[in-house]
Amino acid sequence: MIEKSATQMAAALQSGELTSVELTKAHLARIDEVDDKVKAFLHVDKEGALKQAENVDARRKAGEKLSPLAGVPLALKDVMVQKGIPTTCGSKMLEGWRPPYDSTVVARLKSAGIIILGKTNMDEFAMGSSTENSACFPTHNPWDLTRIPGGSGGGSSAALAAFEAPLAIGTDTGGSIRQPAAVTGTVGVKPTYGGVSRYGLVAFSSSLDQAGPCARNVLDAAYLHEVIGGYDPLDSTSINAPLPPLVQAAKNASVTGMKIGVIKELQGEGYQAGVLKRFNEGLEELAKLGAEIVEVSCPNFEYALAAYYLIAPSECSSNLARFDAMRYGIRTGEGSAEEVMNATRELGFGKEVKRRIILGTYALSSGYYDAYYGSAQKVRTLISRDFEQAFTKADVLVSPTAPTTAFKIGEKSNDPIAMYLNDIATIPTNLAGVCGISIPSGLAEEDGLPAGFQIMAGAMKDDLLYQVGAALEAALLSKWGAPILSGAPKLGAK
Questions:
Q1: Catalytic site residue 205?
Q2: Using alpha carbons only, what angle is made at residue 167 by residues 164 and 169, rounded to the nearest 5 degrees?
Q3: Mean predicted confidence (pLDDT) in 363-385
Q4: HEC string of 216-244?
Q5: Which domain, by its residues, includes 84?
Q6: Any idea what the CATH number is for the domain that residue 295 is in?
Q7: Which helix (H) or strand (E) holds 158?
Q8: If you average pLDDT over every residue of the chain, what do you get?
Q9: Considering 157, 176, 317, 413, which one is annotated as catalytic?
Q10: Distance separating alpha carbons of residues 171 and 125, to the nearest angstrom
Q11: Taking the model in full, what pTM does it have?
């Protein structure tokens, strides 16, 4: 049963074939069996998960009408606060912290009866593309344990690929849902900015951070998105508008008559041959399904990476200033307030977080603000205009999700620029606030590892992601068999 989809599990629960307690115990047993190798979880809430499951079973037995996903387990990225459960953001700075409240996403999950198994590993404060920046330990890719599962949400993606959970929550600041999905053969969605509440999401870069659903297929992601999405008055950036019909779009998947825009700037040099081959095969399948493939140019995407690595560190420098040994986080050292603050931040923050704080503080400093942060914001506007122009020529835009398959753990850890390049195809959507999804496009021939196909749509047109994604998924499933959907990969073997 743990290898089934979330919707299949939900159907079995609704029919009485099994109980939520049985399903939850099966996933907890799977975590016990494999997580010492995968290391997807930072904290497993066995007692809490079983209590949630017992409650759902009791409500179902009493005849209460429950949500479609009630009783289905989920893994939660450790950047989302959950009352009474350790929330560390993968950092020493928040070691042992148990939040006194639930984030809006967690509150909606609980309301829907979804069982939260525990908190997943991540790059510290969501800064990274490999989950190697966690202060605890790196997470391993279930397809090949010597390789990374992506980042910053590698724990959530690895939990899905290892069949430790059928659903997960991630956050995407520059690709941290979609890039892990690509390298683990799973599905990850970055919703329209403001489409899912950020209340209770520990901030990295406030104008870019967006929580979203992670799953093993498109329909499961649509169901989860409908649970967590929608307006939230507790979040000032939340869009006060109803969600489009996401599940309906996934079920009625069709691309007949649609224009699919291939972004010229997001392919070619720097992209692995096997990744591009699978991407082009995906385009062929869309054409066979009745879509028109057109090429579009987004010339300012060339500057997206540079703009992102000024805007995100600047906002991170501001957001993480609260961890000063006086208000939040751990406290260490003796002497003056400044000495205690220095000692605490030296101990509490890892190398990558310090790097970005320094970069962001410099970019915001007097005399450099206009030259760096101000210029980056102008480039952001140009990127948004590129999207607007492209969407006049195509219904959705597509590209490979990540330029390569999963690389070896340690291979890029001493080269920040090489690490940053993993997000080259995903960053533009965050800068513009539009939405994107990554679905598995097949296994690259060079290494037999998963590659991802990215679909992007305009603001509040998230339904198009599910419509096109589900259609392509079905076509590719018949073509390459999607091992992640038909059976667990052998841990440690390609």
A1: no
A2: 110
A3: 94
A4: CCHHHHHHHHHHHECCCCCCCCCCCCCCC
A5: 6-300+380-486
A6: 3.90.1300.10
A7: helix 154-161
A8: 94
A9: 176
A10: 11
A11: 0.96
